[in-house]
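$ fold --in a.seq
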Amino acid sequence: MQSFLLRCISLLMAVLLQMHCAMAEADLARLNYLTEDYPPFNYSEDGQLKGISVDMLIAAAAKSGYIITPGQIKIMPWTRAYHQAMQGPDTVLFSTVRTPEREELFNWVGPISPVRVVLLARKKDAIVINQPGELAQYSIGVMRDAIGEVLLKSMGMESNLYRITNTASMVRMLQRGRVELWAYEDTVARWFTRREGLNFDDFEVVYLLQQSELYYAFSKDVPQPLLQSLQSGLDALKQTDDLGHSEWQNIRDLYLQQPPQESTSQK
């Protein structure tokens, strides 16, 4: 009996030691950070990764005593990044709109910023949409696995959706009338349109799909203490001073008040 108890105690101590070692190795800087070209939240300009979500990630981690650099963040097509984040391990995907459909796929830290997911059209087409049931008569461009597709599929849309993985190409499809509507985040759509050298005044928002918020989406295997550390750092960024200013708002203003660079490619 005594021998059995000793074996049980030894096993318990081994398990506790393993858990302690795992926690000691837990570090925000060791995670795999994935993002896409989604200005002004995350994008590459002149070979440098930047944006609201990038700067907030680095600043929030620093608040919690961790060092993350832009060089640790990989930028890749959204569909590949999205599926890689779901599979893990130790992966963080941003910027990700949090929805009921995605809720159980990830663990979440945020919010980073409020967003508006809208349908855009060419002004000259004079499209008016008063209710969701009218959407089925239009061809709608969506980014595969992005929030626009998620929302429209939840509304019963399928056969009228045109999926693509390159946002710049989607902008041109709308411009040329190859699709009648484009489902995307309002601010990001404006950046892409201008970056492609087009006049956003030629387009207009014709329907609001959802007002939501962006988050950092963690693969389910990431230890909760790391999520809590980043959440605490992000919350600290949002603390206001006596004048009502916060580091969170300063980061947003830095990007929302500057125009995007135009593309030099000919399309």
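$ fold --in b.seq
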Amino acid sequence: MQNKTQLRIKKRRNPIIYTDFVIVTRDYSLLMYSAYIDKRDTFVRVIGVIRKDVKDVKCLLYYNNSTNRETVKARIKLLPEDHKVEHTAAFILCPIRTVIEPDKVTLVIPDFKTNLYPAPITIQKTRQRVWQYKYTLCVSPVHSNYNNRLKLIEWIEMNLLLGADNIIFYVQNVSESVMLVLRYYELFGVVTVYHWTLPVFFTDLHDRHLHYFGQVAAVNDCVYKAKYVSEYVTTFDLDEFIIPQLRHHWSWADMMATVPKRSVYMFLCNFFHENPRCQAINCTDKLSLSTFIIKDNIVLPPRKRSKYIARSNDIIMAGIHQIWNTTSGRVNYVVNPRVGLLHHYRQNKKVYTTEHVTSSRSHVTLKYFHQIKERVRDVEKYLQPFLGDVYSNIELV
């Protein structure tokens, strides 16, 4: 097990290409975020957000350091889980007609008066390499000025302990103290922070135009960033953990060693609630591991709030609760909930089933408690001198 004191500042092997949304049209019909060429594809895959009634998009591909340019008709692939709103995450697929691969790409909608003709974005080329990471953890866009610093430290430390060695955050907006925490972990090369600055038009918490800050686009971008760099990729939120259930399993590696070799491992969801005594006393400064110990007796079925660990090089299209397409065509392997389970911590008890729900205490995570408590205390102690300062100069690069 890796102790917090074992973290070392390290130089990354490959330079990071930072990305953010580029607005293609003034009315937000189309935005592009990133572009990739997978070694198995004959097209550029642009990841972005599109209004679902847009049917015609052209790609401008740039070659030889932008000295040559070619215009091609794109194929639009809308991603699932759009929740029936007017915009959705999408792959814009631009065919490559030459032996030479393009360096940059931009998009336009033909005969559209609101085209902005934005500058091209760099195409990232995924190639087979020696694995740099074992487990890359993708975090859905963090928004609404998220400010729970202690919970974030606990969440990061817990996932490092479980086996994550590369955590990718997409930030819409967070508090200064939370950004300080993220920058702290970036120094050690275990966290990377990317802009996710959607226009205000899309940041409506009622999801009128785009579901939940375009999280499906973020997850797919993370998958393609992890391809051929990380052996596995997983995604879950800041109130969730994938926890090995057996007493002698401490890490994901321990757990994964006991399941058949597959491309996608699906972990069923179980809701956990705060200890009732937290209703009488303030538990906000306590670890989630010690307060969320009341487990519902119902484990949800596959694809209903489930999450996954998958082999990165086999994924074509990722969703929030399942992998939609793989190159191998293999089906998801559902992990026995007695072996591995998604713990989803909930502050309130929303109705999610018509069945009668009972609950009981669970002590599965207590085996991590003392180690995580020590880690969180060490990080807080290190950061404390900075928490009283004004860090307006801390910005995403």
